[in-house]
């Protein structure tokens, strides 16, 4: 085998190690939000992934009795706490977010930096034909929080995303969309 082939094999091996090593979050708390528009509701799904360096602090916020196990009540209370850090408005009017599904990974997965909590909130109500603007703010969990936010492609042809704006850190998001008169 030539030196060039050895170098290529070494580079491929190094890239695979680097790639697998970067799969675990380290020192930040990723809060990724997707917004799903439908005629009868707007759903926000948050995927929260604490990095290994911040997991213990996040677990202390959740595990109120300190037993190392997250009870359904503790998970629900944490979802409510997350909701308190969110603001959501439609055409300038504050809209309450109703709690939906809450899915938590194992504590071990969170400690490994691979556990993602999924919390869904719904803003229910029929969207009539017209133009709309959503304003969403995530005040998050303090220093070390990294935000991502995006709108999913609407599943119905009657909803059209017309503009998206984000703050540089993506803790604020403005979404313009329109709904036409067709129901499909």
From TrEMBL:
Keywords recorded for this protein, A-Z: Signal
Domain EF-hand: from-to ranges = 50-85
| Signal sequence coordinates | 1-23
| MF annotations from Gene Ontology | calcium ion binding
Q: Which domain of life is it from?
A: Bacteria
Q: Does Oxidoreductase show up as a keyword for this record?
A: no
Q: Does the keyword Signal apply?
A: yes
Q: What is this protein called?
A: EF-hand domain-containing protein
């Amino acid at each position: 085998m030539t030196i060039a082939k050895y170098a290529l094999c070494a580079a491929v091996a190094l890239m695979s190690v680097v790639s697998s090593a970067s799969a675990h979050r380290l020192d930040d708390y990723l809060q990724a939000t997707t917004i799903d528009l439908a005629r009868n509701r707007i759903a926000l799904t948050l995927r929260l992934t604490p990095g290994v360096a911040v997991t213990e602090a996040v677990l202390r916020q959740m595990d109120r009795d300190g037993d190392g196990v997250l009870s359904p009540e503790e998970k629900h209370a944490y979802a409510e706490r997350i909701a308190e850090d969110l603001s959501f408005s439609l055409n300038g009017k504050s809209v309450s977010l109703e709690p939906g599904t809450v899915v938590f990974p194992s504590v071990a997965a969170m400690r490994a930096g691979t556990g993602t909590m999924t919390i869904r909130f719904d803003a229910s109500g029929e969207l009539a034909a017209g133009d709309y603007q959503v304003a969403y703010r995530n005040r998050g969990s303090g220093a070390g929080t990294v935000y991502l936010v995006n709108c999913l492609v609407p599943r119905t042809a009657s909803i059209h995303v017309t503009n998206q704006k984000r703050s540089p850190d993506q803790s604020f998001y403005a979404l313009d969309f329109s709904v036409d008169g067709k129901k499909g």
